[in-house]
Amino acid sequence: MAGTDPAEEIAALRATLASIEAVLNPAALETEAAELREQAGDPSLWADQDRAQHVTRRLSYLEAELNRLSGLHSRLDDTEAGFELAESENDEPTRLEAERDLTVLRNEVDQLEVRTLLNGEYDAREALISINAQAGGADAADFSENLMRMYLRWAERHKYATEVYDISYAEEAGIKSTTFAIKAPYAYGTLRGEHGTHRMVRISKYDNQQRRQTSFSGVDVMPVVEQTDHIEIPEDEIRVDVFRSSGPGGQGVNTTDSAVRITHLPTGIVVSCQNERSQIQNRASAMAVLQAKLLERRREEEAEELQGLRGDGGRAWGTQIRNYVLYPYQMVKDLRTGMETGDPLAVLDGEIDEFLDAEIRWMRQNGR
Length: 368
Description:
Elements: H1 6-24, H2 26-40, H3 49-89, H4 92-115, E1 127-133, H5 137-157, E2 161-169, E3 175-183, H6 187-191, E4 196-203, E5 212-223, E6 238-243, E7 259-264, E8 269-273, H7 279-307, E9 320-325, E10 331-334, E11 340-341, H8 344-348, H9 353-365
Parallel strand pairs: 4-9
Antiparallel strand pairs: 1-3, 1-5, 2-3, 4-5, 6-7, 7-8, 9-10, 10-11
C-alpha cells in the first residue's frame, strides 16, 4: 500500500478489524472467559488434571485473543495520533516511527483476518503432528529432526504448549519418526496445510565427499480427538506391545518396559508412546494418537467421497508441498502457494507464519 494516505489506510484497517470482530464475536469470547475464570477459581478443578489443563489453556487463549483485539484498537489510535502530531509539528522522525508502526499493524491485522478463514469442522482443535523420515538415509533422519524442531520452535514463539509422545531415533543421526501435540485452539486448522512431503537439498553432513544430497520427510497433521467424535476401537482390533524406552544411540532412559506400541490390525496403523514413566499413561496417550489418525483417515475418506475424488486430493502422503534448499543457493518455496523466502535457517527456526497464512488462504480458495 505504498503511497496510500495514512488516514485512509488506518480507516481501512479499522473496517477490516470490525469485520474480523463480527466473526470472532469478542462479547461471546468474554462471556466464555468469565465462565472459565469462575471454573479456574474452584479448588476442586485440579482433581481432574486433564480437565483443569483444558480449562486453563482455553482461558489463556481467550484472554490473549481479547487482549490482542483491544491492543490493536489502542495501537491504531496511537498510530493515528502519531501521524497527526508529525503533520502538525512537521516532525519527520515521528512520521517515520508512525509509518513503521502502521506496517506492523497491517501485518498483524492481515494475520488475524486469516483466522476468520478457519471454519472447517475440526479447525478449532488442537493438533497432533507425526513426522517420518523418507528417502535420503541419514540426511532424511536429520531433516526430520530439523522439521520437528521447526514446529516446536513455532509453538514456542506463540507460547503454545506442546507434548512429545514418541521419538524413534535413527542409528547415525536424527530421527526415524516422532509424534507430538501442539495444545492450542486452532492449531489443527492453522497447521493442516503442512500435511505432505517436505524436500531438503543440501551438502550432506554424512558424505565424506561432501556431495549434494536430496532427502525427504513426511508430515502428517491430525486433529485431536474429542469425546463427541465417536471413534470406537474394539480391543480385538488392536495389538499392544510394551518395550523399554531409549534415547539417542540406544542409551537407556528407562529401566522398565513402560513404552507402548499399538498396532491397529484392520488398517496397519502403528503408534507408540514413551514419554511417561507409567505404562498405563503411555497406553492412554497412544490410544489418543491412534484415534486421531483414524479420525483423520475418516475425514479424508469423507472429503474424497464428497468431492468425487479418488487419489491424493492434494493431501496424501507422497504429495510434495515444500522445498528447502541450502545448496547451491538458499531458498524455501511452497509449491502450492508460491510463497518463498531466501532465509531457510529462519524458517527451520520456526518462522513459518507467512507460509501458514498462505496455505490457509490457498486451501480456502481451493475448497480444501
